[in-house]
Amino acid sequence: MRTLRVGFAVAITASILFGACSSAATTAPSAAAPASAAAPASAAAASTPASAAPASAAPAASQAAVVSPGASAAASCVAPNPNFKVGLVTDVGGLNDKSFNHLAYMGLQQAQCQLGATVDVIQSSEQSQYVPNLTTFAQKGDNLVIAVGFLMANAVYTVAKQYPNIHFAAIDTAPADAKGNTVNLPNVANLFFKEQESGYTVGYLAGLMEKNKVGAATSNTISYMGGLAIPPVDRYIAGYIAGAKAADPSITILGGYSQSFTDQTIGKSIGLNHISRGSTILFQVAGASGLGYLQAAVDKGVYGIGVDADQNYVAPATIITSAIKKVNVAVFVTIQNLMNGQFKGGDNEFSLQNDATGFAPPNSAVPADIVAQVQQIADQIKSGAIVPPTTIPK
């Protein structure tokens, strides 16, 4: 049992399974029955984040949900430490986006189980809640406050400056003042990823699939959809384009943005448009909005590529691989470092060098020889022989 507080006042109790200290707490949900990409609440219960509460407990659009993980951890978990508290604030995508926020929550669960951290989560439903949500945990005196997402740069700056004795971690961003200038703070760990590496590997795979006309990849066209044109999204896309063109210089690549990380309807509409224009492999970089993009691939019998987490379980026959970004590892390592007195303010980088980026195991539609070629590309990126670009070509 755990308490789900809607907004900042009303209390509602909801029964939610909490991931124990097992592989379920550190990996994506297992591929049970194919789940509809347009219905994220249907993910496997063993690792479904807390936002999969009954609909009656869902927050209104203008409210934030606070999730306090309960004491139902398995016997294999270490004893909880009430004196070490970690608060996590999601971006508007919410915990059930099956990718970015979900992975952050998994890292938090792992820290609760393996390190004994006492953890709380606040789900933001609009950007205006970022400052008050971060402030909630800072006022409580939490040892670490984690902000999920690039859009929290100014909120992190505002709150971390106000609470210099509280440690913060900012995923995909660094503190930025009102003018947008980056201002590194000693109490903020900036957690960055080389998304272009992951994008390059899945782009290379897509290029080979299209070039060899494997399965449903019957055209010379692939596509992508970003959520917003922000650096972490665009790094994925830049790598994807470069990788695909390295595999097949004559490939056609369609692209667009949903201007949302939550709107699955617009995501699906863009996906259907890309398919109608010949795309047979769709890469989503748009959080929950991207689930709609993948649903278009499901509906039309073409292929999709997931993002952040291994999203094959969303639609096992459709999702041929995913561009991996181990946010869960970054969250866990940062918590562990703070516990061990090794917290590092400023930039902290995660890449293929520390096994935090790359591509998920492809499904059976991808021939073994293509998997082997993509692995060789990943090895060359890791060695520095290939350096994927970080910007999208004009």
Number of helix segments? 9
Distance between the termini: 51 Å
The succession of helices and strands, N to C, reads: EEEEHEHEHEEHEHEHEHEEHEEH
Q: Estimate the strand proportion.
A: 15-25%
Average the pLDDT over all residues and give the rounded result: 85
The main pleated sheet reads as: 9 strands, mixed
Strand order of the biggest β-sheet = 2-1-3-5-4-6-7-8-14
Kindly state the number of beta strands: 15
* SS-based class: alpha/beta
Radius of gyration: 20 Å
Global geometry: elongated
Q: List segments where confidence is low: pLDDT < 50 over at least 5 consecutive residues.
A: 1-63, 67-73
Query: What helical percentage do the residues reach?
Result: 25-40%
Quick rundown:
The protein contains nine helices and 15 strands. With 394 residues, it is of the alpha/beta class.
Plain-language structure description:
The protein is of the alpha/beta class and 394 residues long. The protein contains nine helices and 15 strands. The strands form two sheets. Strands 2-1-3-5-4-6-7-8-14 form a nine-stranded mixed beta sheet, sandwiched between helices. Strands 10-9-11-12-13-15 form a six-stranded mixed beta sheet, sandwiched between helices. β4, α1 and β5 (117-123) form a beta-alpha-beta unit. The longest helix has 17 residues, at 195-211. The chain is elongated.
